[in-house]
Amino acid sequence: MATEKHFKYVVLGGGVSGGYAAREFVKQGAQPGELAIISKEAVAPYERPALSKAYLFPQNPARLPGFHVCVGSGGERLLPEWYSEKGIELILNTEIVKADLASKTLTSAAGATFTYEILLIATGSSVIKLSDFGTQGADSNNILYLREVDDADKLYAAIQAKKGGKAVVVGGGYIGLELSAVLKMNNLDVTMVFPEPWCMPRLFTAEIAAFYESYYTNKGVKIVKGTVAVGFDADTNGDVTAVKLKDGSVLEADIVVVGVGGRPLTTLFKGQVAEDKGGIKTDASFETSVPGVYAVGDVATFPMKIYNDVRRVEHVDHSRKSAEQAVKAIKGKEAGEAVPEYDYLPYFYSRSFDLSWQFYGDNVGEAVLFGDSNPSSAKPKFGSYWIKDGKVVGAFLEGGSADENGAIAKVAKAQPPVSSLEELKKDGLLFASKI
Ligand code: FDA
Ligand code: NAD
């Protein structure tokens, strides 16, 4: 007979937010037996960013249990036994296929039901697949995506099987840049293909992108811009052999990695909860339009106080902090205490090859590049400020030290006025260090 279980708190999704929520529930005094985390993954919550970086390194790749949460933010590593010690039920390998918010019931693919008093939706995103657009041949073998540890295992196995072979990376965003680098580090012959005029257009200016594109080219990565994959050839085993591009050219391929964006996993809740900007709409405590139901991480569209608008953020820092905020709000409500509103400063970062950048704030207005952005320099260090209405609203830094990154974060938060863009360009990091 299918099981039925009841918990005071259920976290749906055992990813980054799920893990950080669990730690916060314990900090806030949740009692053994009160909390369950339900995840379709087979492993306890882990720091997802490792999958596109150290997990795929040719030497000493990172493996679980090494990067379970909360190591990514310098906290205690929550091993599976931590959950049992704290009386938290970690319900793994369990996909929820139906959510009925009216009866507070979740139903799994195997027919088990879970009821709750408070629900935290932390389902994250799924990858957009080329087969979703009907791209010809997109279901051939070795056309791979990356979201979960299972995907990373498939990718790692393909890299081992195709040593010295050809890899095509479709997409010029985060996955595109991080995967091209790590595939190159594995000695594959790598070509990146993306439709825009430069990589990472949602954040990078043309000048910032020019640095990364040259750096990658110097490392041997080939870059094909302004076109998309329209089809794939495969051999008689169904293994991909070539990528056909819209501009008519054909790239040989033993492995294809696709990173063409994510889609927040909100389908279970369609029609039951208010949505906005593709995500589940929440207040500043991440409570949704349904009382007692919270949404955090990639799926939440929340008030971004600093910019007086509402946004959805698909980055790890926010997934951690939103989870903590929601749990504080849940426990605060029980105690009759209000918690301060979420006041989030956007923070994104990436690492590839020997490079490492951080960005804080908003990339709107006029951009001013500063520093040494010569990709052939021994240790390039450069950045960009974004200026809107005479104030610095965003700051990017490649190659910064911890203190320097701290300084650009402070600038983005403080939004100091700027009188001369030329002076700002000349001062560069000095401007940030004076704030
Ligand atoms: P997350 O995706 O972490 O977790 C969702 C969980 O819910 C998963 O375990 C999933 O299986 C589960 N789930 C979903 N639906 C379910 C259902 N119906 N039933 C049961 N379980 C279900 N960000 C950054 O700032 N810097 C970085 O370097 C990186 N690097 C990076 C690499 C890679 C490969 C990816 C995919 C993403 C990043 N990110 C990142 C983004 C960051 O990892 C992401 O924003 C957070 O993981 C979001 O946390 P969530 O908890 O919202 O979702
Ligand atoms: P993305 O939105 O960063 O990039 C998508 C890219 O896909 C676009 O820049 C574009 O170049 C490309 N594209 C779109 N349609 C295309 C098409 N038909 N053919 C070829 N290219 C096409 O998404 P992503 O890189 O797939 O990342 C997925 C998710 O993982 C995002 O939520 C991202 O934030 C997250 N992630 C974050 C990091 C990080 O923060 N360092 C690292 C990895 C992944």
Automatic annotation (TrEMBL):
Keywords: FAD, Flavoprotein, NAD, NADP, Oxidoreductase, Redox-active center. Residues 345-432 form the Monodehydroascorbate reductase 3-like C-terminal domain. It comes from the Eukaryota. Signal peptide: none annotated. The keyword Repeat does not apply. One of its GO terms (molecular function) is monodehydroascorbate reductase (NADH) activity. Its EC number is 1.6.5.4. Gene3D superfamilies: 3.30.390.30, FAD/NAD(P)-binding domain (3.50.50.60). Its cofactor is FAD. Belongs to the FAD-dependent oxidoreductase family. This is monodehydroascorbate reductase (NADH).
